[in-house]
Amino acid sequence: MKLVWSSMICVLIPLVCIYMVTDYLTKDLILEKAVGSARESLNASSANMNAVFEQTLEQSNFVLQNSEIRQMMSADPETLHSAKEIIQYNRMSRMLDDMFVLSEYLKVTLIGKNGFIYTSYPYSDFNPKTFYSEHWMSLLKQTQPISTFWRAERDTYYNYSDKASANWVTIARPIQSTSSSTIGYMIININERKLRPYLNNDNGKEMMLLDDKGTVVSHADKARIGETMTWWKKDGELDTVEISGEKFLYVDQELSSNKWQMVSIIPMKAALSKNKQILFISLAVQILFFSLFSVLLTVLISKLTQPIVKLSAFVKRIGRGQLDERSLIRGNNEAAQLARTIDQMLDRIESMIEQITYEQTGKRKAELEMLQAQINPHFMFNLLNSIRLNILMQGDKENAELIGSLSSLLRMTFNRDNEFIPLREETDTISHYVTLMNFRHANQVRLEMNLADGSGEALVPRFMIQPMIENAIIHGFEQFGGEIFIGARIIATTGTLAITIKDNGIGMTQENLKRLRETAYSSEQIAEEDRKGFSGIGLRNVAQRLSMIYGASFKLNIQSESDVGTEICLEFPLNDGKVGVVNADGNFGG
């Protein structure tokens, strides 16, 4: 029952959270849907409004490009009343009348600076010369020839008997002559009543046309025309606005024909009217599912707890050390799967115990063999020293020194305690090695060393120089005598140790030198002929080993010339023993 009640509480808390989140999200969804619907309606109205303005602009473009009209506006004022000009004027008037079909919604006026006037309406309705007294005429004169002047006019009556036609949209454009001078103006007035049907105001939505100053140009409510919307912002989109203390959703769309904007506002209360209904339905569905879930949860938990009780007793027996026990619980539920997993774990534990026992036995055997292996080298060193002492007592100093060198070299070879040794100890080993090689091959190889101050105590990897000395004796001198120079110095500016190994042997051809440089760092299998000698590793092994230890800080330079000799320079960071260095085996030494 504790499990049942805990589960119900864990479900009830998300249920409350879901209700709160649903309240929040449905509100946003309703608002988004309302905004989307308003935007679609606004786009359709904007398209219709643009169609009216763009058609008017296309007609005005034809007039501005008509050569007969520009010719009459450029004519001498005294010839305007001649018979030829009157005939031309009548022909032009019929053409314009056909283009601008006589309508109460569209008034066209052409005014030339030479006194030429054309109107699509009778002078009795409106005197076109009145335009010269309009205060916006000065702004029209400043308009660029290819530009269009837009203005919303109120209280302009083309027919004084029709007071409902007092609001107009004025479109004015300058007319140029062929010499690009302004010769007149074209003024088109569109009645606001033609635009009003495109403003859909339904379902509490209010749509209007605003000019670039936020003044109402067209509205379903005629009384609102000319009103300045103080809440309107020209730059930046608004999601909501507050008008007279009430919040409204705000959607706008700029017309492509001018900088005016179509604006639609929706009362927030009207947009959220369906939110309560959605919340009620959502809550009812959640309560129904919660009730069904509670019944189902009680039944399922009762079935699941039975194997859990068995599993609990089984785990207690294991805790008392009975590792040979098995649960024997079968089924497809989680408790049965857990029981099978525990059985498999116990099988692995028993297997691991047997393996550990076997490994411990093998380890003790290996330690015993290692102890025996350590006894044999010590016995050999003591025996060699006894032989050397016996030969020395008989006066054979040369052979005694050979045996001493062999003993020292073997001791260094068997000693694996330190990966890094002082350079001076490494050079001492090289001296013993050269002595033995001279004895073996009957060579007269002379070894010269020059260790700068402080370099002899620098720590270097064991047997780092020996492979190159071996190459110099065996391959460089071809079994004959020669000189080998080993020099070392510390480069203070870079904190590195530079070691030079130089011989005066037969050297190498440029082809062999190039191949050696290219393969110095290669990890390919070493040929059998490169594995001859005491150490069993060649120059390439040394380069790879130092690269593993010092990485990119290690530098190798090889110079050689036939019948002159070979010079090898190794340069790597100085290791003073205070900081651990990664060795070739991946361990830390120093």
Automatic annotation (TrEMBL):
Membrane-topology descriptor: Multi-pass membrane protein
SMART domains the record matches: HAMP (SM00304), HATPase_c (SM00387)
UniProt keyword annotation of DNA damage present: no
One family name in Pfam for this protein: dCache_1
Domain of life: Bacteria
Keywords per UniProt: ATP-binding, Cell membrane, Kinase, Membrane, Nucleotide-binding, Phosphoprotein, Transferase, Transmembrane, Transmembrane helix, Two-component regulatory system
Residue ranges of domain HAMP in the record: 302-354
A Gene Ontology cellular-component term: plasma membrane
Primary location group: membrane
GO molecular function annotations of the record: ATP binding; phosphorelay sensor kinase activity
Transmembrane segments: 6-25, 278-301
Subcellular location: Cell membrane
Name the record gives this protein: Histidine kinase
